[in-house]
Design brief:
This protein has 3 helices and 9 strands; from the N terminus they run αβββαββββαββ. The chain has about 170 residues and is of the alpha/beta class. The chain has a 3-stranded antiparallel β-sheet, with no helix packed on it. Strands 4-7-9 form a 3-stranded mixed β-sheet, with helices on one face. Strands 5-6-8 form a 3-stranded mixed β-sheet. The two termini are about 25 Å apart.
């Protein structure tokens, strides 16, 4: 990656070491009257709560008897990876003078199940970014690689987070 000038406030120059703590709460709302007496006797519905934030309606994936209209843990992981990448990308673009006008990401992930257990084995982010006509398209593309290196969530997983990036000029 080529060097780029830092134009604005730089987060990296202000914080060299920091520890942040996050809290949340899960409340199971799926007791249909018999608790967990059988695998198919209870709902997987639950509320995901973080202090001071909106509640998220959660469940399992329909393949595991969940409600497909609610967010499941696998969705949450992919959502977190995509949002973290996007936010780091915006930060790096702002510092480098790349003006992002629009950003979308239709991401996907693979859950592999073996021997009665599963794990996410791969995620692909597919951001489509529109930048201003004055912005450097090559730099805008390069900054995606840097965002992947910086993303807290991507740095916390043990599977590849791939990228298929599209850059457009406004």
């Amino acid at each position: 990656m080529r060097e780029y000038a830092i134009r604005n406030f730089s987060f990296q120059n202000q914080i060299t070491m920091s520890i942040h703590h996050f809290k949340g709460h899960i409340e199971w709302t799926g007791n249909n009257g018999n608790g967990t007496t059988a695998y198919d006797a209870y709902s997987r519905d639950h509320l995901i709560k973080s202090p001071g934030k909106i509640e998220i309606l959660g469940s399992a994936d329909p393949a595991f008897l969940g409600d497909g209209t609610r967010i499941n843990p696998e969705d949450s992981l992919l959502n977190a990876l995509s949002a973290c990448h996007m936010l780091w990308y915006f930060h790096l673009c702002a510092d480098a003078g790349v003006n992002v006008i629009e950003y979308t990401d239709s991401y996907s992930g693979t859950l592999t199940i073996e021997n009665g257990s599963g794990k996410i084995t791969e995620v692909t982010l597919n951001p489509i970014v529109t930048i201003s006509s004055e912005s450097d398209e090559a730099l805008a593309l390069e900054l995606h690689h840097k965002a992947n290196e910086k993303c807290f969530i991507a740095n916390s997983v043990n599977f590849p987070v791939k990228h298929s990036v599209g850059i457009k000029k406004a």
